[in-house]
Amino acid sequence: MELTIGAWFNEPKINFKFSHKVDNYIRIQIIEHIMKPLGLLDIEKDVFLHLTVATKKEQDRLEVFLPRKNNRAKSKNYGLWFPYLEIIHSDYPLKSYVEFFVQSLPIIFNEWGVKQEQIENVTQNVFNEILSNKFYELTAEELEELSFSERMLDGILEELGLDNDEE
After folding, report:
1. 134 Cβ partners below 8 Å, 6+ apart?
2. Which of these, 44, 13, 38, lies nearest to 113 by C-alpha position?
């Protein structure tokens, strides 16, 4: 089984402004501390386990939507819906994001008998590596590109007469 992590945001300017490196590191920790010990890499080798992080402005709690199975693509896709405003208004949004991510892991890996110790290993490693480490922050160029895109989107929404208020 192969693990992939992605994101899907369907509302303009409603997203998490974290580097892709955060999800990549979380993925590595899940593989090392959950999937390998449970033998998941050796079963269903042609199946993808995909975790899709999503949010919307009204999302006010963590929700994990159990897998949509796609037999043709041989994948299981879990939807991880994180509470948008709670995360972006927290004192440390990245920490809140990581906390919600690891809270979803027992639900996802329950069918394979994940142990709390494995979840705690992932959590501790992710916190130790990511929090307060500039490597996992967006670069100045990425922030400028994102700001430019959002300014362009503001203009388009204004032309269409649509509300462009992020919060």
Report:
1. none
2. 38
